[in-house]
Amino acid sequence: MSIQAYVSTDIILDIMNNTAQPQELIELTKLQEKLTGASLPDDLRDKATAMIVQASLSYKYNGQLSGFEQAAKYIDWIVNIPWMKRSSDLLDIVQAKQVLDKYHYGLEQIKDRILEYLSVMKLNLTQTNQDKNVHNFMRAPILFFVGLVGTGKTTIAASIAQAMQRTFVRIPFGGMGSALDLRGQSRIHPDAEVGQLIKALKRAGTKNPVILLDEIDRVADHARADIMGVLIEILDPEQNAAFVDHFIDYPFDLSEVLFIATANNTTNVSTAVMDRLEPIQMPSYNDEEKIVIGKSYVFPKVIVNSGLNGSQLQIDDEVWSLIVRPLGFDSGIRTLERTINGICRKVARMIVENKGNSFHITGENIKQFLPKW
Questions:
Q1: Whole-angstrom Cα Rg for the chain
Q2: Which of 1, 285, 305, 367 has its C-alpha lying 20 to 30 A from 278's C-alpha?
Q3: How far apart (Å, rounded) are the C-alpha atoms in residues 161 and 187?
């Protein structure tokens, strides 16, 4: 414990021994205990302790706890940020391929790029472990998945996190209207909040999660330049080792975070941000691929979520060509998922209404199960 922490504790105890103990002073003591038990950088701990000292002195000389709410909110945030906690990476290329194959059909070129990406990380980590003088962990370029809606951009990012055994968190950029949403607001404002990045780290609970920057092309037009400026800092290895959120007002090392970005297109992404990303185009799915995805990936998951079992609903192979394209061409699988969900819901209702215990969908009866627009 620093000298300043001892001073803070002594001041609070002195006040409590000589006055009645209002709830605020008891809460100040709890704040100090919370601060003492947290894993924090020493100078950040001293900074927070100074806020407690200031609130204690304010009560001693003015009879009121000035700044208590601000100190409590600040300390509650900093003690829950993973300053030093990290998870262990599993950079097993064989297992990573198994995870990618389990959740994604096809996309072989994209899977190869991801495995190459993880291989670079593994080699650099091995070099770092072998040479204790090497402190700069060189990372592979940041992946940037670009493609139409429903082509699997978000789910493949989650699969990468699962393959590496890292926590996965998502920051949605759609409609983001200010760079302060990402970087946080200064505490001088009464309703100040931390930014989305620090919130994501708190949810993750580790300093090295996989953070998905989702739909970075969909920020509000009036804030695009400012948000892209913050993204440049976040994604640049030369700058993100000391990222400062305005609310926390203390540098956080983002160099161990694995960032993955997505967008529907690159038109609204600045050139400087693109320079820090490695774009990977997500292809559209053809009908043959959708049939396999529907039968082997989507249908088994949806049937379980619908409360059904394999014996209650069977679909003939020749019917799938009608299921994957009920209305026309769709680049992704969102429509396919909705169609299969609709079929399973109809069967679930028919079972509940005692119209049968099991159903077999064929070319003759498929129309009664498909949605009608």
A1: 27
A2: 285
A3: 33
Per-residue pLDDT tens over the stretch 33-82? 888 888 888 899 888 888 888 777 766 666 566 667 788 889 999 999 99
- Of 98, 78, 42, 103, nearest to 248 (Cα)? 78
Fold for domain 287-368? Helicase, Ruva Protein; domain 3 (1.10.8)
* DSSP class per residue in 95-157: HHHHHHHHH--S-HHHHHHHHHHHHHHHHHHHHHHH-TT------PPEEEEE--TTSSHHHHH
Phi and psi dihedrals of 151, rounded to 5?
-90, 0
Listed by start position, the domains of the chain span: 3-78, 93-281, 287-368
Identify the weakest region by mean pLDDT among 15-19, 51-55, 119-123, 310-314. 15-19
Give me the CATH topology for the region 93-281: Rossmann fold (3.40.50)
Angle at 216 between CA 90 and CA 174, to 5 degrees: 115
Distances (CA, A) of 301 to 112, 154, 221, 308, 337: 26, 18, 38, 10, 10
DSSP-assigned states of every residue in 210-221: EEEEETGGGS-G
